[in-house]
């Protein structure tokens, strides 16, 4: 069952607001009022700028020197790994033990990469329990973050359809201030229904924040939603006409992980019907029959 | 108000004095998010953000005149909306991007459905349900009655449900 439309609108605009906030942090409305909006006349501003110009130059030169030193000493901060050997059919096999990240170890980024590899192995195997064990994200930590439960639902939904990701290319950056490692992975997500109707896969970039204890704190993914909608919208339109009442499989509203799995399985069945219909009628997903 | 003004002769722009600047800053703190929300609802976040910044700049330059208006925020919103309309081609609908990531409970077609709504309905739906404004606040900004806002809201939600094919 989908979330009520008013709640969807709220979630969507919260996300927009968060994005805007990321770009340009604003003072909350409740903050004390201070006249600091740069209301000085232009002449005063220019006078001040001239007076302090040499200070700015010296500061800029100092920062430049510091950056060069930091770059020299920290140049070897990024490493890459080969993608994991991912076999979706091995869901009964135990997932590799969770590595622990020790903050003082020099191979911190490598260990974090191994954690992410274990995460993806669990995801591809549909092992939700292993994923939960790895992930300790705090609900509500960020309004833009997909919550742990929401993410697990999506993974279950994906796996149930038999969607396949291409080989992942991951790289780790130096730990954040909190001792975390940011692992960024790029891959192509071939959704099952996309595959059935011959649509191209969708490029995805995921950022996984790995804590020093080896848990995944947060996952942020970015991708081109239009590439998903290019198939999902005509799929939903076709369902509305030919199998009314089944449009829910085109959405992402899930009551639970099990429900997400059921919807995924049903989506695959109906996707096959749609693909067969398109083939018989000589139409394509991006040029559907009227 | 005149006694509070000084003139920057080089730019020929009337610059409010300190007391007036203080009044402007108080107003701007409240008005900035409101203008940004309302203009985002009108034109989408990209144009809306720019239009809001432009509106505040305009308000600062014309503060002597605007401060005396009974509803300065609504007045500035009206000007900003007209100005943004001239910037954006009438044939190009408001653009609402997809979320920064998959929001599990949001229909993928929602941004597109929002852009298809008539502007007035979209503004009301976005402000009421997206940004959690009260009915009175929306009515005040738009210079209309609460019952009109209510009508726009109902039609807007109906339009979204119809486009997305959802029931509730």
Secondary-structure map:
The complex is a heterodimer of chains A (290) and B (168).
Chain A: H1 5-23, H2 42-73, E1 79-81, H3 108-125, H4 128-134, H5 148-161, E2 164-165, E3 169-172, E4 181-190, H6 192-196, E5 202-210, E6 216-223, H7 225-242, H8 257-281
Antiparallel strand pairs in A: 1-3, 2-4, 3-4, 4-5, 5-6
Helix pairs in contact in A: 3-4, 5-8
Chain B: E1 5-8, E2 13-16, H1 18-43, H2 45-61, H3 63-66, H4 72-87, H5 110-116, H6 119-130, H7 135-142, H8 146-164
Helix pairs in contact in B: 1-2, 1-4, 1-6, 2-4, 6-8, 7-8
Description:
The complex is a heterodimer of chains A (290) and B (168). With 290 residues, chain A is of the alpha+beta class. Chain A is built from eight helices and six strands; from the N terminus they run ααβαααβββαββαα. Chain A has helices at 5-23, 42-73, 108-125, 128-134, 148-161, 192-196, 225-242, 257-281; strands spanning 79-81, 164-165, 169-172, 181-190, 202-210, 216-223. In chain A, strands 1, 2, 3, 4, 5 and 6 form a six-stranded antiparallel β-sheet that branches. By secondary structure, chain B is mainly alpha-helical. Chain B has two domains: 2-87; 110-164, Arc Repressor Mutant, subunit A, CATH 1.10.10.10. The longest helix of chain B has 26 residues, at 18-43. Chain B is globular and about 55 Å long. Chain B starts with a strand and ends with a helix. Mean pLDDT of chain B is 80; it is low at 1-15.
């Amino acid at each position: 069952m989908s979330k009520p439309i008013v709640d969807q609108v709220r979630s969507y605009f919260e996300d927009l607001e968060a994005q805007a906030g990321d770009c340009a942090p604003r003072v909350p409305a409740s903050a004390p009022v201070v006249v600091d909006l740069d209301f000085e006349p232009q002449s005063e501003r220019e006078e001040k700028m001239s007076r302090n110009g040499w200070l700015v130059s010296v500061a800029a030169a100092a920062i430049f020197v510091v950056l060069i030193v930091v770059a020299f000493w920290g140049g070897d901060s990024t490493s890459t790994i080969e993608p994991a050997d991912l076999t979706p059919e091995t869901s009964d096999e135990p997932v590799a033990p969770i590595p622990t990240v020790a903050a003082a170890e020099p191979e911190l980024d490598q260990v974090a990469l191994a954690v992410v590899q274990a995460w993806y192995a669990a995801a591809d195997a549909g092992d939700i329990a292993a994923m939960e064990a790895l992930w300790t994200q705090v609900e509500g930590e960020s309004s833009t973050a997909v919550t742990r439960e929401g993410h697990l639902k999506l993974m279950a939904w994906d796996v149930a359809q038999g969607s396949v990701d291409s080989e992942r290319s991951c790289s780790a950056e130096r730990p954040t201030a909190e001792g975390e490692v940011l692992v960024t992975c790029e891959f192509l997500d071939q959704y099952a229904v996309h595959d059935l109707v011959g649509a191209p896969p969708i490029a995805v970039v995921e950022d996984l924040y790995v804590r020093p204890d080896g848990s995944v704190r947060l996952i942020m993914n970015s991708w081109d939603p239009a590439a998903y909608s290019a198939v999902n919208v005509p799929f939903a339109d076709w369902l509305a006409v030919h199998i009314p009442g089944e449009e829910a499989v085109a959405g992402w509203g899930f009551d639970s992980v099990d429900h997400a799995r059921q919807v995924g399985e049903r989506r695959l069945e109906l996707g096959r019907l749609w693909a067969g219909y398109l083939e018989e009628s000589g139409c394509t997903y991006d040029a559907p029959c009227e | 108000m005149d006694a509070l003004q000084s003139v920057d002769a080089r730019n020929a722009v009337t610059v409010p004095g300190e007391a007036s600047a203080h009044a402007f800053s108080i107003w701007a703190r409240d008005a900035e998010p409101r203008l940004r929300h309302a203009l985002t609802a009108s034109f989408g976040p990209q144009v809306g953000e720019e239009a809001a910044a432009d509106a505040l700049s305009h308000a600062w330059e014309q503060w002597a005149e605007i401060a005396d208006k009974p509803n300065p925020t609504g007045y500035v919103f009206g000007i900003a909306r007209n100005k943004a309309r001239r910037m954006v081609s009438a044939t190009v609908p408001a653009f609402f991007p997809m979320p920064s990531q998959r929001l599990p409970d949001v229909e993928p077609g929602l941004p597109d459905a929002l852009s298809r709504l008539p502007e007035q309905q979209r503004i009301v739906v976005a402000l009421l349900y997206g940004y959690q404004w009260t009915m009175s606040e929306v009515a005040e900004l738009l210079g209309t009655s609460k019952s009109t806002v209510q009508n726009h809201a109902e039609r807007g939600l109906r339009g979204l449900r119809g486009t997305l094919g959802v029931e509730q």
